[in-house]
Amino acid sequence: MADAPGHETHPSQVVRLAVAEFGADLVVDWYADLMTGRCLATDPDRPPIGWAAGHTRWKPYWARTWGARGLLYVWDDRVGPDVVAALSDEHWRVREMAAKLVRRHEVGPAAEAVAELIDDPVERVRLAAIRALARVGEGEHFDALEHAVADPNRRVSAAASMALDELAGRLDRLA
User: Fold this and answer.
1) DSSP structure string for 144-173
2) Domains in the chain: how many in total?
3) Residue that terminates a domain, selected from 60, 75, 90
4) Nearest CA among 82, 90, 110 for reference residue 99
5) pLDDT grade, residue 67 (50/70/90)?
């Protein structure tokens, strides 16, 4: 296996290089397996973790986070169920990244799980969930976003207001 690029390389560039080296199918599967914890950063049967723009000196949840982050740049709909599962990860960084994947790749089956994250204790997760729900939510999700508009955190409240407008426009309804 070729050496992984240096850590100073942007994740999108690392993903492009990984796809060129290993093929998109293998990279998507590996990133999904990292994200869900089905494999570890040190798995000898997988590429070195540097191909996910990570390293082994950090806590284990970082490999799950790096796997999810890689899926921002290479995607296949078959990993949608893995993204839904990652929305309930024990670590907030993985939940946040999974919500970003829902928005970026419009993972519709994740709408209910994302709606549950609107009350997450971590602001960054709430923000990512609100933005994702704007992209994949349906009419039944207006209440969740209206609830988030009342969040005492102004950033969360403002994001929820914008998400309501986006959802209303997408569904051709009034907010």
Assistant:
1) HHHHHHT-SSHHHHHHHHHHHHHHHHHHT-
2) 2
3) 75
4) 110
5) very high
Token pair 């998400």 is found at 163
In this structure, are 65 and 49 located in the same domain?
yes
Q: Are residues 66 and 83 in the same domain?
A: no
102-134, pLDDT tens digit by residue? 999 999 999 999 999 999 999 999 999 999 999
| Judgement on whether residues 104 and 137 belong to the same structural domain of the protein | yes
**Residue 78 corresponds to which tokens in the numbers above?**
């078959």
Contacts of 6 (CB under 8 A, 6+ apart): 50
Number of Cβ within 10 Å of residue 123's Cβ equals 15
99 and 151 fall within a common domain:
yes
CATH (domain of 84): 1.25.10.10
Tokens matching residue 158: 């403002």
CA 142/CA 144 separation, integer angstroms: 5
For 39, the token pair is 């494999």
Structure tokens at 97: 């990244």
| Rounded Cα–Cα distance for residues 142 and 160 (Å) | 10
